[in-house]
Amino acid sequence: MNIVFGNLTAEDVRFFGRTSSLAGLHLNLLFVISTAYEEFSSTRDLAEKLQVSQGAVRERLIRLAGCGLLRQFGGGATLAGVTLKGRVFLDFCGVLRREARSGCISAELPHLIRLLEMRYAPSALQYARDSLHLAGPGLTEVPEMVTGRLVSTIEAAEERWGVDLQDIPHVIQGRVIGQG
Questions:
Q1: Hey, CA dihedral for 154, 21, 161, 57, is it positive or negative?
Q2: Which is nearest to 100 in space by CA: 44, 155, 52?
Q3: Does the predicted TM-score (pTM) go above 0.85?
Q4: How many C-beta neighbours within 10 Å does residue 123 have?
Q5: Distance CA 154, CA 145 (A)
Q6: Nearest CA to 97 among 117, 111, 113?
Q7: CA-to-CA separations, 139 to 110, 121, 149, in angstroms, rounded
Q8: pLDDT 10s digits, 5-37
Q9: CB 16 within 8 A of CB 26
Q10: Rounded CA gap, 178 and 169, in Å?
Q11: Is 77 helix (H, G, I), strand (E, B) or coil?
Q12: Is 52 left (phi over 0), alpha (psi -120 to 50) or beta?
């Protein structure tokens, strides 16, 4: 419903996909913050947990806040929390990954993808994987590439950080609010 009524938009997904280097870090960061029982109070805490530089975390936090997937309290990157839009995005990524992996696309997914101005084309997946470290409008404006890039980002987050987007235990104020 959040996609149908525009809480998560095509521009949000494109903005998310306009990153290069350290493929999957921004998705992993969103996942870690969404499933943490305690909010992280500094970029150093997040950087240590993810074993990356504070600068890389800071840059991704700004990007995630810019597309409305995170909210931040106070200055800088302190006390970041995942928004409803961020949780919807993670859940959407889980569905997309599961169906892309199985090759069995449900009746609902093409409709959601179309609302997000994306298009699922298995033929674009390998090119998206090979170009994930690159940036440019051809990679984030062509509907098939947006989808391929998102699937490739999910795969990178799974491989490098063990992110599992199936039945995500989202946490709000120390309580698990549901899975998936």
A1: negative
A2: 155
A3: yes
A4: 8
A5: 14
A6: 113
A7: 20, 14, 7
A8: 668 999 999 989 887 678 899 999 999 999 988
A9: yes
A10: 6
A11: coil
A12: beta
